[in-house]
């Protein structure tokens, strides 16, 4: 059984969704420390000629708190309006904007649950069949940290292969996984480019951008554009 574990992010880039679609089980890592100035509550969308940062207001955010101990603030409507203004002329706006409305108007206050809701909704839209679990709901050794905690989760869900984002190559040791009969792989996205109005292509934006400029079937094709290393 293939497994991936990642913190919940705010409308993450397509590589996050490639990772979800590549595994049998995806665990939303909600019981690790919140990272300030990271991607848990913000992301980039297409601006007038380059990327534009959008941020979800958070309450009680601190690197000393777990992600599931932080609350969502009150700027969801403002964020939704920014997305509308930037993408209202995009080819898939009419089908995607109502989906974004449903996610951003969700009344859930807990940040981890709010982000988990949007992750599940996009998985449903893209017909990703991966089982999505929540880390804090698993029975595991919460005293462990880093790689040891990941290995413990792998054992808990009886995984045989752990797949991580390519940026995690420095964090994990293959021999440690091998000792526990686990294969360790990393997902490497292939170059992705598509028309964005008549502008030069801006890469690595939020999944919002991919959805606004590509119909569902095209996005599903993009989900397969990766290799395991």
Structural write-up:
The protein is α/β, with parallel strands linked by helices and 229 residues long. It has helices spanning 14-22, 76-87, 93-104, 111-125, 146-156, 174-179, 207-213, 216-222; strands at residues 2-6, 25-28, 42-46, 51-55, 58-59, 71-72, 131-134, 161-165, 183-189, 226-228. The strands form three sheets. The protein has a six-stranded mixed β-sheet with strand order 7-2-1-8-9-10. Strands 3-4 form a two-stranded antiparallel sheet. A two-stranded antiparallel sheet has the order 5-6. Helix 2 (76-87) packs antiparallel against helix 3, helix 3 runs antiparallel to helix 4 (111-125) and helix 3 (93-104) runs antiparallel to helix 7 (207-213). The radius of gyration is 18 Å and the shape is globular. The model has no long low-confidence stretch (mean pLDDT 96).
| Gyration radius from CA atoms, angstroms | 18 Å
Number of domains: 1
Protein structure class: alpha/beta
Approximate strand percentage: 15-25%
Low-confidence residue ranges: none
Share of helix among residues? 25-40%
Query: How far is the N terminus from the C terminus?
Result: 17 Å
Strand order of the largest sheet: 7-2-1-8-9-10
Q: Mind summarizing the main beta sheet?
A: 6 strands, mixed
Shape: globular
How confident overall, as mean pLDDT?
Answer: 96
Quantity of strands, as a count: 10
Q: What is the string of SSEs from the N terminus onward?
A: EHEEEEEHHHEHEHEHHE
Descriptive keywords:
single chain; 229 residues; alpha/beta; six-stranded mixed β-sheet; 10 strands; globular
């Amino acid at each position: 059984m293939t497994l991936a574990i990642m913190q919940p992010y705010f409308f993450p880039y397509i590589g996050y969704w490639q990772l979800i679609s590549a595994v049998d089980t995806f665990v939303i890592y909600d019981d690790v420390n919140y990272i300030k100035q990271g991607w848990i509550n913000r992301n980039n969308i297409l601006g007038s000629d380059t990327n534009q940062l959008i941020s979800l207001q958070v309450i009680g955010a601190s690197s000393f708190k777990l992600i599931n101990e932080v609350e969502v603030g009150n700027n969801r409507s403002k964020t939704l309006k920014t997305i509308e203004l930037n993408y209202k002329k995009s080819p898939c706006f009419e089908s995607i904007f109502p989906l974004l409305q449903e996610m951003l108007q969700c009344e859930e206050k807990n940040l981890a649950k709010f982000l988990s809701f949007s992750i599940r909704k996009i998985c449903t839209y893209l017909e990703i069949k991966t089982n999505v679990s929540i880390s804090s709901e698993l029975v595991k050794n919460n005293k462990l940290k880093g790689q040891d905690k990941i290995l413990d989760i792998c054992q808990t869900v009886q995984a045989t292969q752990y797949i991580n984002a390519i940026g995690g190559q420095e964090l994990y040791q293959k021999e440690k996984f091998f000792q526990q009969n686990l294969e360790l792989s990393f997902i490497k996205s292939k170059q992705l480019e598509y028309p964005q109005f008549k502008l030069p292509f801006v890469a690595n934006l939020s999944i919002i951008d991919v959805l606004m400029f590509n119909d569902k079937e095209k996005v599903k094709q993009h989900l397969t554009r990766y290799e395991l290393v």
